Amino acid sequence: MKNCIYQDTVERWCVFEVTVEGPTDGNPFVDYYIKGVFKGKNEEVEVDGFYDGEGIYKVRFMPSFEGDYSFKIHCNFGDKSYSGNYTVTPASENNHGPVRVANTYHFAYEDGTPYYPIGTTCYVWTHQKPELQEKTLESLKNSAFNKIRFCIFPKHYVYNFNEPQTYPYEGTPCDSSSLTRDNFMDPKIFEGNDWDFKRFNPKHFQLIENRIQDLMDLGIEADIIVMHPYDRWGFSKMSAEEDDLYWKYVIARFAAYRNVWWSLANEYDVVHSKTIEDWQRYASIICEKDPYNHLHSIHNCFSFYDFSRPWITHCSIQRVDLYKTGELVSEWRHRYQKPVVLDEICYEGNIEHGWGNISGQELVRRFWEATCRGGYASHGETYLHPQDILWWSHGGELHGESPERLKFLYKILCDVPGHGLKEYPLSWDSVTGVPESLAYQGDYYLEYYGFSRPSFRTFYFDDTSKYQVDIIDTWNMTITDAGIHQGKFTINLPGREYMAIRIRKIK
Amino acid sequence: MKNCIYQDTVERWCVFEVTVEGPTDGNPFVDYYIKGVFKGKNEEVEVDGFYDGEGIYKVRFMPSFEGDYSFKIHCNFGDKSYSGNYTVTPASENNHGPVRVANTYHFAYEDGTPYYPIGTTCYVWTHQKPELQEKTLESLKNSAFNKIRFCIFPKHYVYNFNEPQTYPYEGTPCDSSSLTRDNFMDPKIFEGNDWDFKRFNPKHFQLIENRIQDLMDLGIEADIIVMHPYDRWGFSKMSAEEDDLYWKYVIARFAAYRNVWWSLANEYDVVHSKTIEDWQRYASIICEKDPYNHLHSIHNCFSFYDFSRPWITHCSIQRVDLYKTGELVSEWRHRYQKPVVLDEICYEGNIEHGWGNISGQELVRRFWEATCRGGYASHGETYLHPQDILWWSHGGELHGESPERLKFLYKILCDVPGHGLKEYPLSWDSVTGVPESLAYQGDYYLEYYGFSRPSFRTFYFDDTSKYQVDIIDTWNMTITDAGIHQGKFTINLPGREYMAIRIRKIK
C-alpha cells in the first residue's frame, strides 16, 4: 500500500486525506485526474482530488457523521483504483462542524450551537513573512474575531506593493521595483508577467491550507476570497478555461476544511474582466464540486450582487452609503430574507482614504447598530505604520481601540436567549423617543442609543411582570445592575454616547 | 389730524405706520376694515390694516425704495379716508433689506449682501416671562445666530406645560393644573377652553412684534411659525373662516417687518385637522396679502410638503432620516432647485427623546456636512434644566458646546468668495479617497472630513498655479497656515475627527 496512504481514523468534520503516488510527466494538473467516493452509513460523497506536486496526488473528504466509512479512489494512472476503510470518531469539544444558516437571518454550527460572527479582514496575511503570520495568529487568538476574510491571490494596491511569499502559478512576475503610489494604476507597470496558468504552485496552496487549519484550531472561520481585482500579475484576467481550472483546484484542496466559507470575490464589480455570467459559472462550479455546501456569498464595491440568487447563502455587504451601514440591516433583511453580514463598513484607522479612517468609537457604534437589528458586522484596521504593516491587509498586531469592545459585544450577544436578535417593531411612542435601534428575542430587549445621549428612558411592558434591567456602557465595557422593575418605570442614564439598556423578564 | 397719526420720515425697509382712531363697538376685528395704498416713484403697494384694540386701527407699510412717498387710507368708519406724505430715507448701515433667494440655492439681502443663515429655534420664547425673554435676546446677541424660528401660538408639549404670558384670543383657557407627562396627550385634558376666535388679543401680537423689532435690531431674521400642532387650547382646530381671519390679521400686523419669514407650520403633517387644501389656501392668502414677498416655506414631521410648489421659496426641512441630515443636501438641491435649509436636525442636549440628545460635536458636524454641500442647517438645544427652561422652546441661556463652533463656521462661510458654496463634482479618484464633503466656489475649495480622520490628503489641480492651503480644526476652532503649494502636493493632518482643508488659488 506504499502508493496509497490514509489514516485509520478521523474526527467528525475533520479532513480525511488519501495520498496516492503518481506520474510527474506532462502536466499532471490537467493530464491526470483523481477522484474519490467516501461512504458511511448516512452519506456517500464523491469529490475531486488534486495534484500536490512532486508526484503526489491527494483526495480530501470531510465526514459529516460518526461510524465506519470506506473510500474508493479512481484515477487515470497507476493502479487506477484504490480503496480502504476507516472510522469517524466523535467531534472533540471545540469542533461543532461547519457553519450553516439558521432561522433565516442567523448562523449556527452543524451541531446546532449558535454562531455569532465577529469578523475581521486581513486580505493577504497568508502571503506575508512567516513571523508576521505567526503574529497575526497570536493577535487573533487574543481577540473575539471568529471569522477572517482573506485572499488566495496576492494583492496589488496602495500599501500593498510587496511581493507575496509564493505565487499560485509557475512562472515569473512582472518587475515591481519601480512601483510607486503614483504609477501603481498604470497598466505599463504590469508588463512582463510570465505565468503558466495551467500549472499551479502547490506550495502556495499548502501554505494557505496550513493557515486554514491554524484558524480551525482557533475556532475561526476562513472566509476565503477566491477572486479579487487588486492585481498586477494577471490573475484576475485569465481565460474562462483557466478560471474554471483554478476554481476546481481550490475547491478540491480547501472544501474538506469545515471552517471554509466561499467568498467568490472581493469587490466583484471592479473585476472588470468578468461578467455576471462568469460569476454565475463560478457559482455553479462551487455548487457542483463542493459536496459540503459551505456558505457562499460575493462582496461588492459599488452595487450589490443580486443576493436573492438561490446559491447565495448570506449577504456579504460592503457599505454603499458613507453614513449608514448597520442602520440599513433591517432593510436588507427584509429584502433578501438571508443573514446580513456587513463585511466592510470602513476600518478603524487614520489613512488618507475615506474607507479606512474612522475612530474605534464609530466602528463599534456600527457593530452595535447592525447587531441590534439582527445583523452582523466586520472589523478592519488601517493605522499608518512605519513598515506599512496594516492589519487590514497584512495582519500583525492590532493597534486600535475597537477589538476589546468587540469582545465585549460578543459576550453580550452570547448571553441573548434563543438564537439571534430581531428588530423590534416600533410603535408611535417609540418613534417619538427615537431609540436608535431596539432588538428583542422573546422577553429579552436590547435598546442601543448610539450617538444619542438620553439622560433617562421610560418603559412599560405590562403591569404584573418583573424585569431585570442593566445599563450597558458599550464603550467603557461596563454592565451596571439597574434593579428589578415592574409596570411603568424610568431608567436613568449618564447622558453619554454609546449606551444601551438591556431588559430581561424574570420568569 | 388727531385721529390719523404717522411719521414724516421712515428709513427704507423699516416700518411706516399710520394710526387711525376708530370705533370700539361691535366686533372691530370683523365689523370694520382699514386698508392703505402707499405710493412712491417706484412702487405702489396696497395693504390691509388691522384693529389694535382700544379704538386704535393701524396700517403698516415697508417701503422698498428711497424718496418721496404718499399714502391713502380707506376704512368703513370715521372720515372714511385719510392721506399724507412722507419721505423714505436711506437704509442705515446694518439694514440690508429683506432676505431673498439668490443664485437658486442661496440667500441675499435685498441690497445684494449675501446672507448665510445660521438658524436656531426657540419655539415659544416670546411667550415666556419678560426677564427670560431679555436673557434670550442677550444670548442671541452674543451668538452667530441670524435666524430664529418661533411660534405665534403658545405650545403644549413635554417640557411645555406652563401657560403663556398672553393668549392670541379673548377668552379663557382650559385648566392645566393637573397636567402631567402621562396625561398630556389625553384629549380630556383639553376640555374647558372658551375662546372667541373672532376677537384677537392685540396685546399678544404687540408683544410678538416688539420681539420681531428687537430681532431686527440684532440683525436676526424672524422665521415665524404661524401654525403648529402642539396645542391644548384649540388654536390648531379652528374653522376655515377663523383660520383665514387669523392669517390675514397676522400678515397685516407683521408683514411690514423686513426680517419676517413665513413658516406656514411646524410639522404641518401632524396638524391632523388640516388638509393639503387648507395649507394651499393659507399660502394663497400670503401670496395675496403680503406685498413684500417675504420668504415662505413649510416644515414637516414625517414627510416633506411638496417643496416644488411655486409659492415655496426654500426647503425648510426637518430630517427624515435619523442618521443622514446635512449629507442629503445635494439630493434635495437637485430635486427642488431651491435653497435647502435644514431647520431641524436633532438638537444638542441630553433629554430622553431621540430628537434632542446629540452632542455638540455631532450637531456641528451636521452643520458642516450641510454647508459643504451648499445647504444650511439650524441649531437647537435641549439640555435638562432644573426649571425646565430648554433653549429649544423657552430660550434663556445657551449651555451647549455648539454655538461657539457655529460662530467659527459662520466666519469661514463669510470668507468664501462669491456667494455660497457648490458641491464639487466628484471624480473616481475623489471617490476612492471618499472626501466626506467637498465644496467649491470658483478657485476656492473646502474639503470637510467629518468623522473621517485622514492623516494626510494629496491634491492636484494643475502644474502652474499656486495655492494657499489652510488646515481648519472645526471643533477646536483653529485655522493653521499649511503653506503655499503647486502641482501635486500632500497636506498632513492630525488624524483627528472634524478637520477640514481650505485651498485658495493665489491670483
Map the helices and strands.
2 copies of one chain form a homodimer.
Chain A: E1 4-5, E2 9-11, E3 16-21, H1 28-31, E4 34-39, E5 44-48, E6 50-51, E7 56-61, E8 67-75, E9 81-89, E10 99-102, E11 106-109, E12 114-115, E13 119-121, H2 130-141, E14 147-151, E15 169-172, E16 194-200, H3 202-217, E17 221-227, H4 240-254, E18 260-265, H5 276-289, E19 296-297, E20 315-318, H6 329-336, E21 340-344, E22 348-349, H7 360-371, E23 376-379, E24 381-382, H8 391-394, H9 402-414, E25 422-423, H10 428-433, E26 437-441, E27 444-448, E28 456-460, E29 466-473, E30 478-486, E31 488-492, E32 499-505
Parallel strand pairs in A: 2-9, 13-14, 13-23, 14-17, 17-18, 18-19, 20-21, 21-23, 22-24
Antiparallel strand pairs in A: 1-3, 3-7, 4-5, 4-8, 6-7, 8-9, 10-11, 11-12, 15-16, 25-26, 26-27, 27-32, 28-31, 29-30, 29-32
Describe this structure in a few short sentences.
Two copies of one chain form a homodimer. Chain A is α/β, with parallel strands linked by helices.
Form type of chain A: globular
Biggest pleated-sheet summary of chain A: 8 strands, parallel
| Count of helical stretches of chain A | 10
**In CATH, what is the homologous superfamily of the largest domain in chain A?**
Glycosidases
For the largest sheet of chain A, list the strands in their spatial order.
19-18-17-14-13-23-21-20
What gap, in angstroms, lies between the N and C termini of chain A? 63 Å
What's the level 1 CATH class of the largest domain in chain A? Alpha Beta
Write down the Rg of chain A.
Answer: 25 Å
User: Which percent range fits the helix content of chain A?
Assistant: 10-25%
Residue windows where pLDDT falls under 50 for at least 5 positions of chain A? 427-432
Q: What is the averaged pLDDT score of chain A?
A: 94
Strand pairing plus helix content of chain A: what structural class?
Answer: alpha/beta
The CATH architecture designation of the largest domain in chain A is: Alpha-Beta Barrel
Report the strand count of chain A.
32
* Strand content range of chain A: 25-35%
The structural domain count of chain A equals 3
The third-level CATH topology of the largest domain in chain A is TIM Barrel
Oligomeric organization of the protein chains: homodimer
Biggest interface goes to: A-B, 33 and 32 residues
